[in-house]
Amino acid sequence: MKKLLLVLVIFLCTGQVLFAEISRAEKTALLDLYESTNGQHWVRKWDLSEPVSLWYGVKVLNEQVVEINLFRNNLMGPLPESIGQLEHLKILNLAFNNITGELPESVVQLTKLQVLKLEMNRIKGSIPVEIGNLTELKELSAFNNFLSGRIPRSIGKISGLKTLNLSSNNLIGEIPASVGNLTYLESLGLFENTLYGEIPKELGQLVQLKELVLANNQLGGDIPKEFGQLASLKILQIQNNKFDSFKNLEIMDTRQFLVIDYDAKDTKRDFKDVNKSRTRMADTKFEDVDEN
Question: Residue 189: what pLDDT?
């Protein structure tokens, strides 16, 4: 009898977890996402008659939606403004789809996000000015879209960020000096935009940076002497810009590099042992892998 009761208790507990109800606001946001991005044509559709915890790519923990991973699932259309109601999200991966429209301003309400991956879509418009509200982010990747406008200064508030890749967009203006506050940053990709002005000397504070890809912009001036502080740097790609001088690259220990690309005509710079043709972040179209 005791065993039977134990089995019944386990069954009931399991059932409660399986069929746990999320809040009405969160469910509405998910349904809006499904409808707005043409859910009937997704590769893996949601069965809306099933509990949310069984919907493909959705992870529910303690009756809260904590993850949405719809990587390469043929999402088509804009993201709904109601996405900001998914306030417990830690991971949002919508990469490699056909998402259009502008990034909803409400995305800055997802203050528990640790991973935001939007690369390889057709998102246009500007990055929300208050993107710095996402202080828990470790990875922000939105390369190969049609984002325009300036990189918000508030991005410097995301102090724990390790990966920032906004390559292959239509961003303009100067690289904000506040990027230098991202002292845990390991990878920075701003390749192929229309960024201009000098590289901020504050980037020299990114002592954990391993990859720095600024190629194919309109950056000018001198390479900051503070680059000499980037002892962890392995990949440096700054070609196809309008720099006046590469002299300060002499300060750097060139033995540290795996990849370096720059346009210096001064052959006195000795990088002969470095592979200048190898690329990684610059070829962002092939950077990600199928995560399904």
Answer: 98
Closest CA to 52 of 88, 105, 106: 88
Among the residue ranges 60-64, 88-92, 253-257, the one predicted with the least confidence is 253-257
| pLDDT tens digits, 225-240 | 999 999 999 999 999 9
Q: Where are the domains of the chain?
A: 24-122, 140-287
pTM of the model: 0.86
How far is the CA of 242 from the CAs of 34, 117, 160, 212, 220, in angstroms? 45, 30, 31, 17, 5
- Asked whether the predicted pLDDT for residue 261 surpasses 60, the reply is yes
DSSP β-ladder status, 91-93 and 64-69: parallel
Residue 287 pLDDT class (50, 70, 90 cuts): very low
Q: Is the domain covering 24-122 a CATH 3.80.10.10 domain?
A: yes
| Matching fold, domains 24-122 and 140-287 | yes
| In contact, 200 and 176? CB cutoff 8 Å | yes
Euclidean distance between CA atoms 185 and 205, whole angstroms: 10
- The total of other beta-carbon atoms located within 10 Å of residue 192's CB is 22
Q: What CATH number is given for 140-287 in this structure? A: 3.80.10.10
Determine phi and psi for 145, rounding to 5 degrees. -130, -160
pLDDT for 291 beyond 90: no
Which residue would you say has higher pLDDT here, 62 or 277? 62
- At residue 268, the pLDDT reads 44
